[in-house]
Design goal:
The protein has 11 helices and 6 strands. By secondary structure, it is mostly helical. Helix 10 links the parallel strand 5 and strand 6. The chain starts with a helix and ends with a helix.
Length: about 325
């Protein structure tokens, strides 16, 4: 029995050693294979976030933020530097919130623009998260300890694909815009995209625009984020996201009003937007129901500026 236990222990040690050697080889030799893809822009976004210590506006959310904001216009209008942290829905709400927490300071305004409030406090696509990380050291602190198990499970698939890219010299090839790292400007906005492209109505016939849902998991985490922001002398607010409205809509305006009222009731931070003001016609969208073209980007940005100005005015006059 003792000999059997020793053999099992030796086998486990060998397996761990092999995994360790493969991982070291991946880090030291294979290295980054995804540095030019869309998600690699997170490293640039974090660099901007971590080098601005004056009061700033931090935009948090999925690709509806990346494709739907003119940060320079906000910066000019409100006189505060802006960091657009919007990235990818596959990473989940919690991941995007953790990005912002890397540098929240006194006077900052953290603007969360989630398109849903019923997540499971996880990373929905851990392989995508590893591809996003891709050995870029400034991204690793975004991962929480509770994320490690899912990341470890996804690691073999990520490793296999990275090795294949390295062996075939297909890694780090620049992707076509807008789904590339250089599609982003210095603020973190996607700006390099064909202006003439817009979603056709048939897209919305086949792809129903969902009504946001709410669960306690997401709400409790946002309330904790609100407390954290206040402890840092910062503010957390919730703002709208672009909602496509046209003849194929399944949900009524009243249902969105009900959702908004429920959200206001359960959050400890202010909801500064009327979601009805974020209803946009189909021709304001780019290639997806959350991505805006230039016309939509400008309309949505001006609405957000108005919401922020109104909230700032109310906050100043209520002190």
């Amino acid at each position: 029995m003792q000999l059997f236990v020793c053999k099992v222990a030796l086998l486990i040690l060998l397996v761990i050693s092999c995994i360790g050697l493969i991982s070291v080889f991946d880090y030291m030799v294979v290295g980054s294979q995804y540095r030019n893809i869309y998600n690699a822009s997170l490293s640039d976004k974090l660099d901007r976030l971590n080098t601005i210590y004056e009061p700033k506006i931090i935009l948090v959310g999925n690709s509806n933020i990346a494709f739907g904001i003119d940060s320079e216009l906000i910066e000019t209008s409100l006189g505060m530097p802006v960091v657009n942290l919007g990235l990818h829905g596959g990473l989940g709400n919690a991941f995007h919130e953790e990005i912002a927490k890397q540098n929240i300071n006194k006077g900052d305004i953290v603007v969360v623009c989630h398109s849903d409030f019923s997540d499971l406090d996880n990373i929905p696509d851990p392989e995508l998260a590893l591809i996003t990380y891709d050995n870029q050291s400034n991204i690793f602190p975004v991962f929480r300890k509770k994320d490690y198990i899912d990341l470890i499970k996804a690691y073999p698939t990520y490793l296999r694909k990275s090795y294949k890219l390295w062996l075939t010299d297909e890694g780090n090839i620049k992707k076509s815009k807008p789904y590339s790292r250089d599609a982003f400007n210095k603020y973190g906005d996607v700006v390099f995209k064909p202006n003439e492209l817009k979603v056709k109505e048939d897209y919305f016939k086949k792809n129903t625009v969902a009504l946001p849902k709410i669960n306690n998991i997401c709400i409790n985490r946002l309330n904790e984020l609100c407390e954290y922001c206040l402890s840092q002398g910062a503010f957390l607010v919730i703002a709208g996201y672009p909602i496509a409205r046209g003849k194929y809509n399944k949900y009524s305006e009243e249902e969105y009003v009900k959702f908004q009222n429920e959200l206001i009731d359960v959050l400890n931070c202010p909801v500064i937007s009327d979601y009805k003001n974020y209803f946009y016609p189909y021709d304001y969208f780019y290639d997806f129901s959350l991505h805006l073209n230039e016309k939509g980007r400008q309309a949505r940005t001006r609405q957000l500026i108005s919401d922020l100005n109104n909230w700032i005015w109310r906050t100043d006059h209520n002190r």
